[in-house]
Predict the structure.
Amino acid sequence: MKKISVGNNVFMYPMPVTLLGVNILGKPNFMTLGWVTRVNANPPMVGCGVGKHHYTPQGFDENKTFSINFPSADMVRKVDYCGLVSGKDIDKSKLFEVFYGDLKTAPMIKECPLSIECRLVKVVQNPTNNFYIGEIAGSYTEEQYLTDGKPDIRKLNPLLLTMMDNRYWTVGEYAGDAWSIGKNVKIG
Amino acid sequence: MKKISVGNNVFMYPMPVTLLGVNILGKPNFMTLGWVTRVNANPPMVGCGVGKHHYTPQGFDENKTFSINFPSADMVRKVDYCGLVSGKDIDKSKLFEVFYGDLKTAPMIKECPLSIECRLVKVVQNPTNNFYIGEIAGSYTEEQYLTDGKPDIRKLNPLLLTMMDNRYWTVGEYAGDAWSIGKNVKIG
């Protein structure tokens, strides 16, 4: 088949849907974040790409801490709302029940099945977005979301995001064991 | 419900499953990559976290170019194989049909519904992994994967990955329009 271009503004298929939490002027603020990934194995570190014009960068500056919260699909309306309105204009601190962990200043969302708190390690300046890299300091989940002691994506039931069509999705079927299903592939 | 810890080694739920392509000594090499995200809006840039002990860093050094390829779920065995064996030991250049775009040295996979080629912009050194940031120089897909001119995740049918349980998943149901479904949320 003939290859064609869809331009340069291509996104990941899919992106995870998370809520990025920071405290600003002592109040929790949450923004919807799909530009997030693990960046380091040991110690465990994550990185997130945040537009410089957002309200959230102020929280990184103030406390050098942040949280990544994984909402379940039934939270989709509140999750989307966090991406629609800025903390500059609307106080989002009462939208969720908030708790704190060891870092004390990284606000986490009680309703989310899984949250991590991170210590800011470095800020990479890109043209329109900052990339905040943090070390994972702690994780918070509930027994009901685990299978064999590990978070079970079927129980977490997280959301996925696609852009440019701007749609949320859920996770589908199991498709195989990683570092296993490809063992018998032969080349050539 | 009581919150409990699952330690510090927490991963994204879920991660996209991509094949990261570089040329090394003139030959294409592909590694399975879940640690990848957009990092900048304009110009469009992506970043990927790659263990320093892998073979792939040599390709970044040689050409300052790379590709991110989105395989479909029916490629799961070959995709997994690319994560099981290192290019140091096995020549993976014949595993897929390879093509090149404008950058000339970023090998892309013809069987993948969507590929992007990137120009390396910066390398962020983290303790065990390098984080390679690149500007998207071009994208390559086929008409059959588009709806209204945009990549359609139902047609791409990509894979997702979860760790620590190490499983692949497919994409499930549509769950709402982003920047839309939360419009009527009221706080308090």
In short: The longest strand of chain A covers residues 129-141. The mean pLDDT of chain A is 97. The CA atoms of residues 3 and 147 of chain A lie 42 Å apart.
